[in-house]
Amino acid sequence: MTRSRTVLRPVLAGLGLLLLTACATATTPESMSISSGAAPAPVAGSRMDHTFRIGEVTGGGATSSIGLSDISNDVLRTALSTSLRNLGYMSADETRAGYVVSADLVDLDRPVAALDPVLIFVPIDLSVTAKIRYTVTPVGANKPVFSELVATTGTATASDAATPAGRVRKANEAAIKLNTVAFLKRLADDWK
């Protein structure tokens, strides 16, 4: 009887570690939103100053409890809206907005190796690349004035999260923050 307990304990511990590494948690809009000062603000009185509203946000997916952390359309929409509001791009009254910003999460390249249960013991950095196509269209028009694919990579370390699944979530969040900043910089440079 004691021999079976001795064998059973490591098996249960291994199963527990496997479950711990496989439990993905969803990203939150708060962790992907940027605050004022983290990206360029619109020039006062410019066509970008308090004139945007968020349009369609597509391409996201729900996080499965046994897969890798994902980013849903609603979470991405809220994070983008909050970031643009914090920086002064969003119109206070959506009905008076001059431009609609749409976002399509084209690709979220996450490390499949993060599902390997052995990585629970290896504190490696994990990186995620987010590719989002942003489109800025005047309200009531069909032709966009800006449409570009923006790709950025976020990285999370073992100090950011103990588990590989947690590091993927943190890397997702970092990639989206960097992507929003890159979009706004590109918009400021290209759309004059």
List the helices and strands and how they pair.
Layout: H1 2-22, H2 29-32, E1 52-58, H3 73-87, E2 99-109, E3 126-138, E4 146-156, H4 164-190
Model description:
It is a single chain. With 192 residues, the chain is α+β, with helices and mostly antiparallel strands. The chain has one domain: 3-Layer(aba) Sandwich (Rossmann fold), CATH 3.40.50. It has 4 helices and 4 strands. It has a 4-stranded mixed beta sheet with strand order 1-2-3-4. α3 links the parallel β1 and β2 (99-109). The longest helix has 27 residues, at 164-190. The chain is elongated, with a radius of gyration of 20 Å. It starts with a helix and ends with a helix. Mean pLDDT is 86; it is low at 11-22.
